[in-house]
Amino acid sequence: MLSLDILADQFINYLLVEKGLSIKTIESYSQDIARYFNFLKENGIDNIEDTDTAVILSHLINLSKSGLEARSRARHLVTLRGFYRFLVEEKILKHDPISLVDLPKSTLKLPVVLSVAEVQQLLDAPDTNTAIGKRNAAMLELLYAAGLRVSELINLKLNDVNLEVAFVRVLGKGSKERIVPIGRHARDKIDDYIKTGRSRLLKNIASHYIFVARAGNPMTRQGFWKLIKQYATTAGIRKKIAPHTLRHSFASHLLEGGADLRSVQLMLGHVDISTTQIYTHVARAHLIKIHEQYHPRG
């Protein structure tokens, strides 16, 4: 992989030769790229492949905290969108991590993130006096506790969850496995569901899946998403949420609390985790410590 400085030079040369932009515009692009690269280097990132949506969002949050006006942040985002588009076109990157960040015509719009209080309201919405309510409460709690994708959540097996050590084993995109710690609240909800709710839903049917629907099958993504929207309405949440809202909230709350980018990336599954026995143990202990220290429900 080429160094960040070489990538910057190639991008600027592309803007000058291929796009024919003015010197003044190119200077603005150069300043934006330099500021972004300084942020990456300050956070120990020297490989562009290690950047993802969480890193970009953290950078934009940092720009906002530094006092940069919304219009300037929007221009900055335009620069980064062009840069990542260039990297994909040149086959330096396979995927564009900035495509999930929306840019309206007038202002900079980041993905919707729930506040800690709103998350609490959403997690309290299910009626845990019923077996279905216990299941749904456990699913919502785990989705937020571990920052899972909905598809990862519904496909979890019983042996993927270790309540004693407090972690879940997740099979993410590209069949990459990762270990994510969970907090006390998630453990308690899952334990209650397994002990007093799951068997009532199964009705003597065997299933490897932890969160079961009809005939012991896993819930569909659409079915679970419909539940989230219903509970959001019940909780009085007026924000327009999306399937990744709790995942975005998970990452944002950890970053805002002071967690380091590397740890959050590992928990989100954006960086490959070594399968060696030693590294797995080291990573697990470190992530559990980070999760307990910075996650609102750790």
The unreliable regions are 104-108, 271-284
Helix content: 55-70%
Q: What do we call the CATH homologous superfamily of the largest domain?
A: Intergrase catalytic core
As for the CATH topology of the largest domain, it is: hpI Integrase, Chain A
The ordered H/E elements are HHHHHHHEEEHHHHHH
Number of domains: 2
Q: Which shape, going by the Cα principal axes?
A: elongated
Q: So what's the CATH class of the largest domain?
A: Mainly Alpha
Strand fraction? under 5%
Please describe the structure with a list of short key phrases separated by commas or semicolons.
298 residues; hpI Integrase, Chain A; 3-stranded antiparallel beta sheet; DNA polymerase, domain 1; 2 domains; 3 strands; mainly alpha; elongated
How is the secondary structure organized here?
Elements: H1 4-17, H2 23-42, H3 53-65, H4 70-89, H5 116-123, H6 131-146, H7 150-154, E1 161-162, E2 167-171, E3 177-181, H8 184-196, H9 198-202, H10 221-234, H11 245-257, H12 261-268, H13 277-294
Helix pairs in contact: 1-2, 2-4, 6-8, 6-11
Could you walk me through the main structural features you see in this protein, from its secondary elements to its overall organization?
The chain has 298 residues and is mostly helical. Helices cover 56% and strands 4% of the residues. The chain has a three-stranded antiparallel beta sheet with strand order 1-2-3. Strand 2 (167-171) and strand 3 form a beta hairpin. Mean pLDDT is 84; it is low at 104-108 and 271-284.
Give a summary of the structure in a few sentences:
By secondary structure, the protein is mainly α.
